[in-house]
């Protein structure tokens, strides 16, 4: 009974005593969310009160929440750029943070069109590690026996750069993987990877992927979960296997390593894994040589219980393809984080992707929420917005996330729109809705990422009758035609080559997309003639992988890369257009009536 009481928790029965402590910590933090938030803000203000930035607002040493809200403005990245540039150029004075800026974390490079430099301090690694340490104790509540096998996770580092002042600038995951927190992490039977550290830390993405895949194939029966950061990363790994299984099976058959792997530390560590295994090589070759790869993940890794990938927000469009390759394995979204800050975790990681909600951990930073109807308005010192505290958000409402961090971001607008779905104790739970950005506009119409995703989802349903799905897409507003029109690039996956979608069917897909877009767009099409018929351009298989390779060659992080949902960079446009195999236009006007006018 004593053991049972130690391992019991309101979240469920912990798998071990270490898990029980983690679950108890979650309970403590979420039970008193507002008081934790008040303490966090007081700590940040007392620590950073003498910084150049905060002294501008004459807080005079106050750590009071109301004084902070009344005096410190809500800002965007552009407002901080002069200070960030000074730090990047070598100014080591206490500009944003009283603690030294240890490095810059670069944003994904495909969010808002530019790589932003986020200042961070050494102790933030402890906070990130703390959040990571909570993930498996929660997962163990839902999936038993994960200590009996391993995880095949495709994780990558990006070669870092230095600012003029000598500070490292690199993606947050590269920073974490290269830290001692990751490299010398203690053994945890619930969190063992098939990939050696040397393979993860190899800066050459081909060598890294190859050796991680090779190790995962050798240990195929020990693999209980597959993962990557984003769903797109896991699909890239499957595509890699499609392209390289001949060489991989050769290495397994002979117990030798491909000469393409030249990194000495990688060759050395993989040498301990390599052994001739003709039977395994024959099996993998037999599966990979089949034309139909449906369910390939569970065929190669038969004991896989779930896929650990982010499939919320724009990543949701990968779900059908993941289902195809995995035979419908559960998709687990475990945590919510960004370069600016790690926010929280999913307390029900096996929920359907459409129902994923993240619980904000109130000890990570000070969180405020700008009601979404206000977030579109122009904010200024003369018309300060009314921000809502973490504990005071309302279920069903949408907010833009605003953070104040230990590293020196104060009332910073992250740009994420979140919808409150409920509470765990006194801590709110949020569904990630979208990044706050308009993607497409020809006239007075404004189409955002969520609307475009919905339109693609609705149109792609028409393809089911020919066993075809949309693997990937992007868009641009073509204003060279008069009137301008939306162009959507689709890469398709057909399960039956003899039954490809017809031109008529793809034209109907164009119309279905238009009928899914907002009334301002449809009015422009029907009444104002300010927008031309929507166009779908079908591109060759593999085009979006080329797009990723191009982005990575220009400095994007392989871990954080997300396909841009709107493109306007000429080389990318030229690449896409050179891969077009057919183009299709909406054959009719979408539905619109004056009564729907706003």
Structure, described:
The protein starts with a helix and ends in a 13-residue tail after the last strand. By secondary structure, the protein is of the alpha+beta class. It is about 35% helix and about 20% strand. Mean pLDDT is about 90; it is low at about 110-115. Helix 11 (about 205-220) crosses helix 12 (about 230-255) and helix 12 (about 230-255) packs across helix 14 (about 280-290). A hairpin with a 5-residue loop joins strand 4 (about 160) and strand 5.
Draw up the topology in text:
Blueprint: H1 2-7, H2 17-31, H3 33-48, H4 52-55, H5 65-71, H6 77-88, E1 103-106, E2 117-120, H7 124-142, E3 150-153, E4 161-162, E5 168-171, H8 172-177, H9 180-183, H10 197-200, H11 205-218, E6 223-230, H12 231-254, H13 264-271, H14 278-288, H15 296-300, E7 306-310, H16 319-326, E8 331-332, E9 335-337, E10 342-345, E11 358-360, E12 366-371, H17 372-375, E13 388-389, E14 398-404, E15 412-424, E16 427-435, E17 438-440, E18 447-448, H18 449-460, E19 468-478, E20 485-494, H19 503-516, H20 519-526, E21 535-539, H21 543-553, H22 570-578, E22 580-585
Parallel strand pairs: 1-5, 3-6, 6-7, 7-8, 20-21
Antiparallel strand pairs: 1-2, 4-5, 9-10, 10-11, 11-16, 12-13, 12-14, 14-15, 15-16, 17-18, 19-20, 21-22
Helix pairs in contact: 2-7, 11-12, 12-14, 12-16, 18-19
